[in-house]
């Protein structure tokens, strides 16, 4: 009986550790999801959109983090922490080149015609969202197992 109580106390401590680490784990999972969406956008921009990608600058400037930060390298994550509001976490997936809005949403020409947008980021977000549940479940289960085994 005494060993069962000791095991329950150990398990309780592991759960308290998990509760303490939950915000960090959530932030890390959110950042990874943003990075995944940015990578998806790069893939979409480079395949099947030759008119959307000329020099590669647009394709290489998809990032995740805080869109108000200046971010000039080719890494997906800009290093900023996700914003929180209560139990809600937010992170931006964005492209910071000046003409990204024109490629994404389209534009009017001087003659008055309309050039359709490529909706690269929108398509990337849809693709990432379609597989998000299974990816998050797998990652969360792995992290949960790590925390419970580590104690």
Detailed description of the structure:
The protein is an alpha+beta fold and 151 residues long. It has one domain. Helix content is 54%, strand content 13%. It contains four helices and six strands. The chain has helices at 2-46, 100-105, 120-130, 132-150, and strands spanning 62-65, 83-85, 88-90, 92-95, 106-108, 114-116. A two-stranded antiparallel ribbon has the order 1-4. Strands 2-3 form a two-stranded antiparallel ribbon. Helix 1 packs antiparallel against helix 3. The radius of gyration is 21 Å and the shape is elongated.
Summed up, what is this model?
The chain has 4 helices and 6 strands, in the order H-E-E-E-E-H-E-E-H-H. It has 151 residues and is of the alpha+beta class. The strands form 3 sheets. A two-stranded antiparallel sheet has the order 1-4.
